[in-house]
Structures are given as structure tokens and as C-alpha cells.
Amino acid sequence: MKKEKKGMPQIEADDFVRRFSLRAGNLMWLLGAGASASAGIPTAGDMIWEFKQQLYISQRRISYQSVADLSNQRIRAQLQNYIDSSGRLPALGAPDEYAALFEAVYPAESDRRAYLDGKMAGAKVSYGHLALATLMQAQHTRVVWTTNFDPLIADACAKVYGGTGPLTTVALDAPDLAAQCIGEGRWPIEVKLHGDFRSRRLKNTGEELRHQDAHLRQVFVDSCRRFGLVVAGYSGRDDSIMDALEEVLQNKGAYPSGLFWLHRGEDPPLPRVEELLARASQVGVEAALVKIQNFDEAMRDLLRLIKNTDTSVLDSFATDRRRWTEAPQPAGRRGWPVLRLNALPVIQIPTTCRRVVCQIGGLVETREAVEKAGVDILVARTRSGVLAFGSDSDVRAAFSGHNISEFDLHAIADKRLRYDSGERGLLRSALICAIGRCRRVDVIRRRSSDLLAPSDPRESVWKPLTRIVGAIHGTVRGVPDLKWREGVGTRLDWAGNRLWLLVEPRTVFDGITEENRAAATDFARERTVKRYNKQLNDLIDFWADLLAGDGGDMRALDVGGGIDAVFRLSSITGFSWRAGA
């Protein structure tokens, strides 16, 4: 069933799946950075804040640690105020913000290439990439256009096909090849609209984007008059691509099999995307916005209705996620598990939070309202409204200026904790906040995980850790501004019908920059390379005992007159045991 919002057509995800199953071979794909997020590559939004951080540190000559936590709204406001005061860079959320910041931080193309090369290191293909390669193999996907620099599509095809021979990858160096392959039907084809990260012709700054290769762009426009298009993981920030998508609509026969824009998150798409879809619909194109959870889940849904596909590689990829049954806790000398896991059961979580329905935008605007009010509350933005932990007076203070129409309770259901939902994000923030309050650790927030390190490594509570690994803090030799502490990385995940806190012992750095990142990497490797099973087991024991404490309550905010988030952790980690043992 179609829904209209501001002239922009929308359809439900299941509706899109059914349409795709009937016309897959006549639909091309356009992939942006969001399609590679689950593979470990940061999105443009992540890099935007890192660029602002680097400009602030280098130009103001301050320590990295003072602005290390990019998830902290106060720090973001501090960085944004500095960027705005310069008068030279685009406003927050402007379509050219990423390109302008990238160019300001790294004016030389060689430096941009080195930066991107570092971001690609260690990335692994996700389920979504393998699913797309599976569709290519079955002739259900012929052409993939991408603004990304990564090699993940080629890597996925190598796994599915057993080699990269069947795939033709075209970068900016050979635009004629794209036209030739499409004209001759030499499928499958991948076309990198902004260049390959190893290519000499990277395109990621404003000036370069404005001068997108004319020939390659024309091939793209012509192809969109022959095929329909599915857009995934792309925000619509740069003018060159959006200009091309709009140019297609100037002639009859545009997007003959439809134009479908897959959109993740609660925030609306950029205005130019809304305008494109509305205009396409007005001229008779079957165009729609499709709300999805993420690229991987969307591809999983598509494959369910696509017949005649060999999913053996996908099945093998999914073995890591296969179902398992609970095992009894091991006991006695013969009770040791086959494999110990670095996951702590979260045995108590909040079941309700505050829900506020008001006239406010997405998560960015919600956090800005909290920042402006100067209150200590935790928030998430969902379709149901603003979800929050904190005192009721503080919650009202933050949103009273946005016409509150409902102020009630919201039940946190398990079904919404199984994926990366607003509710799970809120619990993650609250749990880490509680740990920071109760366990003498500093918290450094990251996009998908959080780092914990001793607030004062000289306290007696850290002596057992010293006995395991030796020194637990210091300065990297030869790099006086680079400090380090023994710490742990954490991530909240769902398995076996419950939440788990995953812990990974690691070295946490203060003052890390692009210039000393290599030194930090070498130092961390030297510290961990000889940590074998016994020492790693002792480390997991230490962190499990420290984080769980006496098994009592950990409160995120310790407030009254509202709703606090209360957690309990178990120090008994998860484990795998041989069936029937």
C-alpha cells in the first residue's frame, strides 16, 4: 500500500521485495557508503566528525583526549562551533559537507588515498555483499554502480564465483569500457563512479565531484533509461550523482523498471532525495522510498523470493550465526567447556523507559535539544517518539519547547533488541553510562563499540590487572604525546534470547592522530602478540569480575522522580560445550 508524505511516494519493504522478485534482472543497483558499514568501513557521517576533530586539534593545538569522544554531544557542539566560526566550511548537514571537510583536512590527493587505504584495511565482505554477488551469479543483477572506493563487491564475487574473472570492474580510468560492456551485455559489471581506492583518479572533493567524468556520467544516465534503479546506502550528498539521477527524468522512458530508494533510520532523507522521488512520480516513473533496517537485512529479504540461486556460499557464511542450545554450567575437573566466550550475560535490563511525543526531528535534533537544556538524560529517537531515561523534570525541560503531546511509558520489548534498534541503542548508552559511574573507568565511545580504561591506574583495584600484564599505563616510547592504558573494548549484542556484553582486552590510546597511528598500532601489537590462552583467560576473568562487581544493581543516572536504567551483569561468561558431553 502506498503512502504519501510531502509529495514523496513510499512503499513498505515487503512490497518492494515482491516487485523486485519479478523484475530483478531489469534493475541496476547504486550503492553508497552505508552498504559497506557492516563490513567495518566508516560511513561519510562518521568521517565528517573525524575530519572536524582533526581540524580542531591541529588548528587549536589541543590534546586529542579533550575531544576524543565523538559520540558526546557536548564535544560535537564544541567542534561544530569551531567549524562554523571559520566561515569557510559548509553548515552542519549540508550536501557538500563531507567533500569540503575532506579537502580541507587532506588537500593532496595522495594523502586522501592513503587515508582511505587505511580505512579499507581489515574490512571483510558482509552478508549483503555476498547476497548481491549471489544475485549476479544467477543473472538477477547485471550492473552495480557505486560511489564507494572499497573492493568489497569484487571480494564477494571472488567468494561466490571462485574468482574475479566473471566480474568486470570499471573505474574512472576506463569510462569507455563501461559503455562497451553494457552495450554488449557483458554481465556482471561494477562501475566505480568516484574511482577505486587504488586508482590514480580518486574523486572525493567538491571540485572533483563537480567535474565528474562526463563520459562515465553519460553512460550512467543512458543506462537509467534502459534499466530501473535501486539505491542503497547512499545519502544523496554530492551534486554530480544527484544531477545525473535528475537528468534521466528529462526524457521519456526514464527508469522503466522503477526507481527505489532504500532508506535506513528514523531521520527523513535529504530534501533533494525527496524532491527527486516526487518529481519522478509526477512524470510517471514508478518511484518510491523504502524504509529498511539495514543493507544486509534487506538483501536477506530479497533472496527469500528469488528462485534459482545458489546460496551455498551464503549458507557457509551464516554458519557462524547458526542456532545453538544452552548448556549447563560446567562443574568439577571434567566440567571445563570446550571453548570459553568473551561475553557476559546481561541478567537485568530496564523494561520501560519514558516516551515523549513532540514536534522534533531526528536523533541529531533530539540530542541538540538535550544539549541546549543542559540536562543529564539519555535519549533515542524512534517512530514511537523520543525514548528517554532520566528525571521527568529534565526530560520535560529538554522537549517542552517542541509541543509535547504525549508523555507516558514505553515498554522495551525483546523483539526490538534483536537488531540494531533505537531501543537497543538506548540500552547500550545506558549500560555503558552505568559502568562508567560504578566501575572506576573512563568511557570512550565509538560508532559500534565503546572503550573502557582505568580512570586512575594507580588505584588498588587495578593491582590484579598489573599482575597479569605488567604495566597498565604509560607513554609510547619516542612519541611523548601518545599515552596508553590497558583497557577493554565492549559491544552489546543479542544471542540465545538475551543481551550479552562482549569484552575484548585491548590497549586504549590517548592522543592518537593520523601521524602517530602507525606507532600506536605497532605498540599495541607488541603488547598483545605473546598473550596466549592462560593470560587471555586471566584477563577475561579480571574484566568479568570487575564489570559484574558483586552482581548488584548498576544505575545509569541515579535519579529520582523519573525512570532510571538499572542493570546487572553476571561474571560467568558464555561458553561452548560439545553436544552430549
Structure characterization notes:
- The chain is an alpha/beta fold.
- It contains 20 helices and 24 strands.
- It has three domains: 3-40 and 124-315, 3-Layer(aba) Sandwich (Rossmann fold); 44-120, no CATH class; 343-576, no CATH class.
- Helix content is 38%, strand content 21%.
- It has a nine-stranded mixed beta sheet.
- Helix 12 (271-282) links the parallel strand 8 and strand 9 (287-292).
- Helix 2 (44-60) packs across helix 4.
- It is globular, with a radius of gyration of 25 Å.
- It starts with a strand and ends in a 5-residue tail after the last strand.
Chain-wise SSE layout:
Elements: E1 3-5, E2 8-11, H1 13-23, E3 27-31, H2 44-60, H3 73-86, H4 97-105, H5 109-120, H6 127-137, E4 143-146, H7 152-161, E5 168-170, H8 175-184, E6 189-192, H9 206-210, H10 214-224, E7 228-232, H11 239-247, E8 259-264, H12 271-282, E9 287-292, H13 295-305, H14 312-317, E10 339-340, E11 343-348, E12 352-357, H15 363-373, E13 378-382, E14 385-391, H16 392-399, E15 406-411, H17 422-438, E16 441-445, E17 450-454, H18 463-469, E18 473-475, E19 483-495, E20 498-510, H19 517-528, H20 533-548, E21 554-555, E22 562-563, E23 566-569, E24 575-576
Parallel strand pairs: 2-9, 3-4, 3-7, 4-6, 5-6, 7-8, 8-9
Antiparallel strand pairs: 1-2, 10-24, 11-20, 11-23, 12-14, 12-15, 13-14, 14-22, 16-17, 17-19, 18-19, 19-20, 21-23
Helix pairs in contact: 1-13, 2-3, 2-4, 6-7, 6-13, 8-10, 10-11, 15-16, 18-20
